[in-house]
Amino acid sequence: MEIDIRALETYNKLAHDGAQSAVKSLSQLTGISTRVEVTDVSLMSPSDLQYEFIGNEYAGVSIDLSGEIRGETVLAFDEQARTAVTDVLVPADDPEMKKSSIKEVGNIMTSGFIDGWANHLNTKIKSSPPTYIEGTGTEVLPRSATEGDSHLLVFRSRVEASRGGVNEPVDFRILLVPDQTSLETALEPQADTSISFEKLEVFNEMTKEGAEKSAANITSMTGIETSVNISRLSLVPLEDIPAEVGTKRYVGTVMEFEGKLGGYLVILFDQPSGRAVVDSLVPMETEGEWGEMEQGALQELGNIMTSGFIDGWANVLNAEIKHSPPKFVADIGSSIMSPIIAQIAQTDDHAFLLDSSIETDSDRVFTCQMLALPRRDELEEALDEILVENSGNTEADPNDLF
User: Fold this and answer.
1) Going residue by residue through the chain (402 aa), what tens digit of pLDDT does each one get?
2) Are 317 and 382 in contact (CB under 8 A)?
3) Were both Cys, which of 65, 76, 117, 210 would link to 309 (CB 3.0–4.6 Å)?
4) Contact 271/332 with Cβ under 8 angstroms?
5) Quick check: 378 and 261 in contact, CB under 8 A?
6) Which long-range contacts (CB under 8 A, 24 or more apart) does 373-376 make?
């Protein structure tokens, strides 16, 4: 299947505008101040989407779509968001009325989300009556996101809410998972701006393999057992990328790579994870500051992780990809990303973001996020040269892949 990148950008904007319309409806109904923090369209496996929802309680609505766009839309509030909404609409302690209010709010918000798509396509998109959903994690996900192992294109919006000027710890999400047939029609190439969906799948899998090699390198150097829990490729408006990373404080490295494929790779450890890595790498007591020795340890680890991450790309593309020495960074996530976004913004307004999360299930809390931002024109050219039928054999002679 060939997909038109410009059309995908348009639909991503429609998803963003639809989310804006939805949160405006919520604000009018409840007085809760809301804003759309980030909207993207992500290529990801069902298991990766499921991992994002594991462990949290949600309530909301599910609506089936038919017509020009077919699929399923889910609007899900976490426990804090559900309480904030129902406390305003149903002050009485009546569980059934609270459930009904979530259903009604979800119906109104989802209608606003879908209307923009129908207007753009100049057609009618029919929606089923809302089905109330409630449960932990994957129990509230669209059915297509819990079945099979093929990749999904998921339009995702995340919303931040506040009441009385104080930010609520609210997790509020809108997901649209269109079925592949209607997606293929909607994204049919109209110009020379298409990318093979199958090749995007291949590249996403190559990236996941690279992240797994990086995780193995972390384990080899530090003794900390790690695994890759999420790996996805997203098309994101540049202005949304800082919000994608957030305002949490990180330490890590930034590197630029170039060759057949150029761009940036950012490796971010949250503060406790960064300290755990340094403690494992530096065989002496430190003063808890990010001094020259600590920075050097993280830079060396970043260098080895980067090599593991991009070697697979170089092998499949049969080309050398070099990277700059890692630069140590310590700041909030959005501030780390902003200079990179400024560079990419000189030529593009959207970027392909490859996002992999490395974690450990041990008692030692550990998270590492790897963010790759390849230059878009070079990525499109590189994808054009990959042969899907051979690219899965990463151990093959690279000359056989073209």
Assistant:
1) 787 888 888 888 888 888 888 888 888 888 888 888 888 898 888 888 888 787 788 899 999 999 888 899 999 988 888 888 888 888 888 889 999 999 999 888 888 888 888 887 788 888 899 999 998 877 888 877 776 657 888 898 888 776 554 455 566 888 998 887 877 777 776 666 677 888 888 888 888 888 888 888 888 888 888 888 878 889 898 988 888 888 889 999 999 999 888 999 999 999 888 888 888 887 666 565 788 888 998 999 999 888 888 887 887 777 888 999 999 999 999 999 999 999 999 988 889 999 988 887 665 567 889 999 998 888 888 887 775 554 554 443 434 433
2) yes
3) 210
4) no
5) yes
6) 373/241, 373/263, 373/264, 373/265, 373/266, 373/340, 373/344, 374/261, 374/262, 374/263, 375/261, 375/262, 375/263, 375/344, 375/347, 376/347, 376/348, 376/350, 376/351, 376/352
Domains and CATH numbers, the chain: 2-187 (3.40.1550.10), 194-388 (3.40.1550.10)
DSSP bridge partners of 299? none
Q: What token pair was written down for 204?
A: 């996403």
As a whole number of angstroms, the longest Cα–Cα distance in the chain is 70
Buried b / exposed e over 6-16, threshold 16 CB at 10 Å, is ebbbebbebbb
Query: Whole-model pTM?
Result: 0.84
C-beta of residue 146 within 8 angstroms of C-beta of residue 43:
no
Compute the distance between CA of residue 40 and CA of residue 29 in angstroms, rounded to an integer: 26
3-class DSSP state of 46: helix
Query: What whole-number distance in Å separates Cα of residue 97 and Cα of residue 93?
Result: 9
